[in-house]
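In the previous chapter we treated chains in isolation. Here, by contrast, the input contains two separate entities that must be folded as one system, with a combined length of 739 residues.
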Amino acid sequence: MAAETSSSSNPSLFYRLFFDKELRSVTIQVITMALILAFFFFIVNNAVTNLETIGKGYSFNFLWDASNYDINQTLIEYDSRSPHWRAAIVGIINTLLVAVAGIILSTIVGFLLGVLRLSSNWLINRVVYVYIEYVRNVPVLLHILLVHGIVVNTLPIPKNALMALDGSLFLTNRGFYLPKPLFEPAMWAVLIAFIIGIAFTIWFKGYARKIQDETGKIYPVLLISLGAIILFPVVVFFLAGVPVNLEYPELKGFNFKGGLVLRPEFVALWIALSLYTAAFIAEIVRAGIQAISHGQTEAAFALGIKPSRTMQLVIIPQALRVIIPPLSSQYLNITKNSSLAIAIGYMDIVATIGGISLNQTGREMECMTIVLAIYLAFSLMISAFMNWYNKRKKLVER
Amino acid sequence: MKLFKTLAVSAAVALASTSGVATAGTLQDVKARGELNCVVTTGVAGFGAPNDAGRWEGFDVDFCRATAAAVLGDPNKVKFVPTTGKTRFTVLNSGEGDLLYRNTTITMSRDADLKLTFLGVNYYDGQGFMVPKALGVTSAKQLDGASICIQTGTTTELNLADYFRANNMSYEPVTIETNEEGQVNYLAGRCDVYTTDASGLASTRSSFDNPNAHIILPEIISKEPLGPAVRQGDDEWADVARWVLNMLIEAEEFGVTQGNVKGHAAKAGDNPSINRMVGTEGDFGSMIGLDKQWAVRALSAVGNYGEIFERNIGVNTPLGLARGLNAQWTEGGILYSPPLR
């Protein structure tokens, strides 16, 4: 109302620009927006003009040409005759592999460290504290180079490989060689048993809750679920006559042939990223647990709830609410940090399409666009999943 | 509605502020700047690497210095831009460097598709393999299944894939970014074999603690004519850099050296070729936007091709490379400069 009177009583635009709060803020926003757009327009225009000057277009046709280079770690079929887009897929899979493996390992180690950090044992508590502070405060690139250096320089060459488990596991500076499982057709039965186990668990959980609501009787849901999901398929596995053959790695010529191999580049990246991120996760977990006031535990005990149920029903659900949001950003970090793979030659998306393909074809803008788009897609997917999970775990307000 | 208006106004403002990109000739740029930006390697002993005192030295580096001496009158007015095999072309094309002297193989796709202009060959090379003597390997044909360290972004990467494919052998590529990284991985035994241009192998081996424990296999699996390049589309600058290179090669052919070039320049002699080079006859410097003394300055700074070769990578250096293909055409090699006339 006041603004209306002032603008109608004094129509001078210049005056209004200074004293009309709304007009002033709109003007400032318009100018800021214009400057931002102008800036980006200048950058893009500059790139386009320069590319045109030297006669390079913007085209993705090169993706269908043969890549002409080899990659050492390929989870799908690939050779030097494959097109560039296939090299990109190889890179994407390698990135996903190290990101997912890193997320799993860092979560396990992080939760463990976080709980140990709260231990009442002075020594454990301090040792974990020192570890976390050291790891958190050294750049992750150094961790990666350190682990890679240790693997490559201290482990023996394949000829003198360290053997473990009676010749099924070999440690060398070219990688860790494990037996590779080759599945027979009967393995399908085990897979089906596993799926039945999961389906049964979902049904049983609902059933147990219903019984508990009606009669107050509590079933050991966890034990029975584990039995259905793990024990049942294992039994089927042995009944089917162990439908698995192991292919053992063997030293042939320069290198081991056969079996599964974890290359030093993968191991270094995986371990370094996981340990680094685990230190952050440990602090998040500690904070989450400490955020729940001790009164809650005491209240639960006073009601006669068992300590294990107290943890499960009172502490963890509340702690998770505090833990999940910062945990998601750690998962995003581990995915993005995996691009440091380039430092040790792990063939991730940056090294394949954003590295060798880029260099051999000279298509910088196109390759970088692809790499950016892929990282953005990964990060958005992880965010979406963690937001969904967070919503599920949110405090239901009544 | 308000947001829409805001955006429309902003877009209008943005369009109004369009700016073009103007490029003057590189020669003028270099002269105005008083410094030549030369794109070199991050460190290949003998070809281009900083010495103990931090001063860049090497075969490729000397050609940069010769160009700077011809254009700016001072071989030290060079800013060396170290690049990896991966970044070199981007650095040159983005204008960060004026001239590329970085063990770079001339290929059709680099010339045409990467929009470079190659100026000639300053070293005829070929891709080879280095292995530890202890492996007992004597031929590249025995390398089936080996792990091979290879610099990414190079033609050697492509040759390697082709060679192993053609010979129906398998290998594990261990991709590395720089020559130093390759050395570390090779010496640690992460790979059995190190492959790059034969000259690069000699250079790498020379920096080992025990060079004699490693051999370079006899197979040369590719042609690697190494030469300088500039951005495509600046013919004037390309001419300057090209004729500095040609002149250094021809100077050796006619026996003009770092020591005697001043004498030749003082008074016109009997050999018209030499006279044209040192500016006592005709004015060839002005054809490429320089003065008559351009060649004299370059030669007194670094000497002719042969002197540059012997000083940095020749038989009396740790690299110990023989002239081989890189001898003058008059002496059994294929070094053949177009005449300065």
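DSSP finds 13 helices and eight strands in chain A. Residues 1-8 of chain A have pLDDT under 50 and may be disordered. Compare these points with the single-chain example from earlier in the chapter.
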